[in-house]
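Take a minute with the sequence and fold tokens given here and flag any structure token that looks odd. Thanks in advance.
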Amino acid sequence: MQKPVHQTYSFDEFTLDLTRGSLLRGGSEIKLRPKSFEVLKYLTENGGRLISKDELIEAVWLETAVTDESLVQCLKDIRHALEDKSQQIIKTIPRRGYIFEKEVNENGARAIYTEESSGIYLVIEETERNGDFLNAIKQNKRITIFALTSLLIVVTIFAAWRFYSKKVENSPPLSASLFQNLEVKNITHVGNIINIAIAPDGKYAVYTMGGADGESLWLRQIATDSAQQIIAPSDVRYFGVIFSPDGSYIYYSRSENKNPLPHVLYRVPFLGGVSQKLLTDLDWCPTFSPDGSRLTFVRDSESRNESVLMIANADGTGEQKIAFRPYNEPYTYPAWSPDGQTIAVSAGSMELGDSFREVVAVNVADGAEKSVTTRKWYWIDKIAWLADGSGMVMSANPQKSHAHNQLWLLSYPNGEVRQITNDSHNYTNVSLTANSRTLLAAHTELLTHIWIAPEGDAVRAHRISSGLGDYKHIRWTPDGKLIVAALGNNIDIYLRDADGSELKQLTVNAGTNWGHEVSSDNRYIVFDSDRTGNFHIWRMDADGGNPTQLTNGTGEKFPDLSPDGKWVIYTAFQDWTLWKVSIEGGAPVQIAKSYARQSAISPDGRWIVYMASETNRQIVMPFEGDAPTKPLDLPPGAPLLQPVRWSPDSQAIQFIVKREGVENIWQMPLDGGAPKQITNFTSDRIFSYDWSDDGKTLGLVRGAWTADMVLLTQK
């Protein structure tokens, strides 16, 4: 039996006193819980060797049944005591275990052990200057067969370890081999899936569902297709779900009463129970560090003009700012790398119709940021790292044409990309199993059609488009025809009759074109287009001829025409203020110096309404420009970032409100009266609408998203 003669270990400036059971630094004691001390003792005794979670638990807790959470908490205590934030002392090897990296001196200069076995004694002496095991054997005259046998065993184990390590080192990275040959399976067919995540072992999926009674949280066993409700439907809005790395908890973020802000993070036991509130004021659902001890998330602040990448402990304590960006170029969907040293996150502009995103890698230790992608993307959704850190899977769209998101594999660190899917579906919410062999994604599809509603009456409303439609924007012409934007190869503008027949395509494969408005004399159509690389305001004849660029700044969108046809108002991206330019072109003039977007001029030409911020506050001001203004707050249920319209008589503003999954048009009088519902549709969403010039007929683009879970497995 091994009997240590001296009872202290030392490394760096720390000393582990085994006799007293204490951790010292410079003579001062650092408090550690008994189990945390035992974990640190076992790691130091086995320095330089990979130790699995199971081995640690078995050694420290003996035959006591505990979860991985107990070990994770001990490691968190130890790292805090050692100030080992960057894992310079105890390194986590994702999904394999831990290595104590520091050289350990046993009682300083000298450590003596005796080995007792069946009456045979082996004495080994080590010194600081010469701890070579073979030299110690040569110097000792009492070498026994036992010692030689022990040496042979050690050498054999070491050789096997080196062989295995070399094999792992020479294995091709997962980014080179994964998702070349996929088996695809739809695992739900309900159409109302919102947020999803797959368990680390791939056996379960957690997801949220929308319904008439509100949103709910569910758990699904993938092998049997059986489902269990974890949280009943309520008047809330979920923004993301994840499993803890050990699979024992489900973390979810949501806001109350369907308000967009603030998001609150909760966790609930795997099979349901009481939810625990952990964090407030976060954007996008967080992800875990490899050892499960910490979370990374994003916190945006419009008032401070910043988007902040944060980390915190898994229980919500110990918040820390890692990096920040301007508010208009925010971080979204952070993902912690398997080695724990890097957080990959989507970043850049995400304005409607003018999104330019990239994946950046943020160093956890110092917050340094570098780009991973070699090009700008129109949109990047959720990111998931491969198990070996050689790349990540992302849902992304490389074009500005509003084409569907596909799944891509992004290699790290070289930034090369390979497309995984290439079909007509839209993929979001990427989630990977621990071994990266199975991928869960949301399979979404938008189907919209053109509707005509005489006097806004939902009962008499009828659809005039057919087939599979993807319409975006609708406006009436003075002579009773319709101008619509629709997705083909790009988003283009079309002229249609009110009976649904298509008359002419007005823009043809010239970038993204929409946001169109028709002049009251039916001479011109103004619209925004990115055909030159950035969005600018354009004018064309009513038949699509003579396209002319009216603005040439850093980016401009959301045009509207004055009733007399002389002026075009729009929002400039440079400072998000309101401007106007002559329909004939020329120098633009600023008319509002505060944040303004998606403006609309009243039919009588006296007023302008615009969105004041990314809350739902609208500002009404005189057409002449900045002057005393009237703020109007839209009621609960009004979706963010929607373009507000005017009633035909210019006495009220109109907007969309969503109640119980259905959208209708509401109206709010300028004189301060209460808002009221003016349409009564019983299904679908409203994506765009416009009243005919005589105010008697409502044209709408209506439809719905369907979303289900799809499983992609490496064959």
